[in-house]
Amino acid sequence: MSQGLTSIDSFLNYCAYHWNKKNPSDLLVDNFSNKVSLETKINDWIPKISGGNKIEKRVKQWSDFKKLKQFRDEEAVHPKGISGGIEFEKIAELLNSFRYGIALLLGNIHMVVGKKIPSIIINAYYMPDVIVEKDNTSVA
């Protein structure tokens, strides 16, 4: 999950690098002295890079992205307390959210900025649901 979010951030930095080469008077900068959040890059950089196209936020991809980002921020990277671990059902839920919140979002970002979608992103989007089985019953 963290690597998926990092992939989105890295791709946006890659797009900004190419934008900056063509637009030296209108730089997109994310560095130690000018930190730019991932959401700011999505909200502000993508429309600039794409000529006005935006990422749709009223769809499952955005809610799953927010869920994964929140988990990453609060549990994986900056835990708020002592953790007793994570339940299998929660792991399955997060893995299933990856399909829309990372793979579909990253694919849509590629399309919006006019880049070919790599096959690994397409494959991740079409992965089957992760299901946890307990006592011979499935829990999605």
Give a short summary of the structure:
60% of the residues lie in helices and 4% in strands. The chain is mainly alpha-helical. A hairpin with a 2-residue loop joins strand 1 and strand 2 (137-139).
Core attributes:
2 strands; mainly alpha; globular; 140 residues; two-stranded antiparallel sheet; single chain
Architecture blueprint of SSEs:
Elements: H1 2-22, H2 38-50, H3 60-77, H4 88-112, H5 119-125, E1 132-134, E2 137-139
Antiparallel strand pairs: 1-2
Strand line-up of the largest beta sheet:
1-2
Number of strands: 2
Give the ordered list of helices and strands. Answer: HHHHHEE
Look at the helices and sheets and give the structural class: mainly alpha
Sketch the major β-sheet: 2 strands, antiparallel
Q: What's the rounded overall pLDDT mean?
A: 90
Number of helices: 5
Helix content: 55-70%
| Relative strand content | under 5%
Describe this structure as you would to a colleague.
This protein is mainly alpha-helical and 140 residues long. The two termini are 18 Å apart. Helix 1 (2-22) packs parallel to helix 2 (38-50) and helix 4 (88-112) crosses helix 5 (119-125). It has 5 helices and 2 strands.
